[in-house]
């Protein structure tokens, strides 16, 4: 899909294996923005296996202009016991130098189209409570903000050391 905005054009398309270095570059750029650079442990090899391998577990849309990757939207299918198939938007990341051009909006639109095409019971995503630009972005779309759920997790390090039989 070719998008024309502000006298500049870019395309939104499905990521290719060759885009993996740019996907990782943008993930690392997001980590810098979120002051969590030490948290990124995913590698190009992980992204290739998990996004393009025989049993891929995520899809990724790319915003591209003249072969340059400007942004990504990484999604995956999850399952709700109440709603069935749902789509989860892990991240929309637009390179800092390219923000303000409508790229994030077009990536989000493509994610919404994908959720509709898959007859998703819900489209979900998370926003850090301090990230006012992202909160403002999603509020423009009349998104529902849910304050009744608490996110829980075990980290990789916890999973390595935890003994399930002792829980």
Features:
167 residues; alpha+beta; Aminopeptidase; 6 strands
Description:
With 167 residues, the protein is of the alpha+beta class. It has one domain (2-166): Aminopeptidase (3-Layer(aba) Sandwich), CATH 3.40.630. The protein is built from 5 helices and 6 strands. It has helices at 20-33, 44-52, 103-117, 132-139, 156-161; strands at 2-5, 8-14, 59-65, 68-80, 84-94, 123-125. Strands 1-2-3-4-5-6 form a 6-stranded mixed β-sheet. The model has no long low-confidence stretch (mean pLDDT 92).
Brief description of this entry?
Helices cover 31% and strands 27% of the residues. The protein has 167 residues and is of the alpha+beta class.
The third-level CATH topology is Aminopeptidase
According to CATH, the homologous superfamily is Gcn5-related N-acetyltransferase (GNAT)
**CATH architecture assignment:** 3-Layer(aba) Sandwich
Q: Radius of gyration from the CA trace?
A: 17 Å
N-to-C SSE series?
Answer: EEHHEEEHEHH
- The low-confidence runs, each spanning 5 or more residues with pLDDT under 50, are none
Query: Helicity, in percent?
Result: 25-40%
Strand content: 25-35%
Number of domain units: 1
CATH class call: Alpha Beta
Q: How many distinct helices? A: 5
Strand order of the largest sheet: 1-2-3-4-5-6
Query: What would the principal axes of the Cα set say about the shape?
Result: globular
Rounded mean pLDDT score: 92
Please give the number of β-strands: 6
* Class from secondary-structure proportions: alpha+beta
Q: Alpha-carbon distance between the termini?
A: 49 Å
For the biggest sheet, the summary is: 6 strands, mixed
């Amino acid at each position: 899909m070719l998008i024309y905005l502000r006298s500049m054009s870019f395309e939104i398309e499905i990521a290719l294996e060759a885009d993996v270095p740019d996907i990782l570059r943008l993930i690392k750029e997001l980590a810098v923005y979120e002051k969590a650079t030490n948290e990124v442990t995913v590698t190009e090899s992980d992204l290739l296996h998990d996004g393009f391998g025989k049993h891929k577990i995520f899809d990724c849309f790319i915003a591209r202009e003249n072969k340059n990757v400007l942004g990504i939207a990484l999604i995956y299918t999850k399952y709700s016991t109440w709603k069935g198939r749902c789509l989860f938007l892990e991240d929309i990341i637009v390179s800092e130098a390219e923000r303000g051009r409508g790229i994030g909006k077009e990536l989000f639109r493509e994610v919404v189209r994908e959720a509709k095409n898959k007859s998703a019971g819900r489209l979900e995503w998370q926003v850090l409570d301090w990230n006012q630009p992202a909160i403002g972005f999603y509020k423009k779309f009349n998104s529902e903000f849910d304050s009744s759920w608490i996110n829980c997790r075990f980290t990789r390090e916890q999973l390595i050391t935890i003994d399930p039989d002792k829980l």
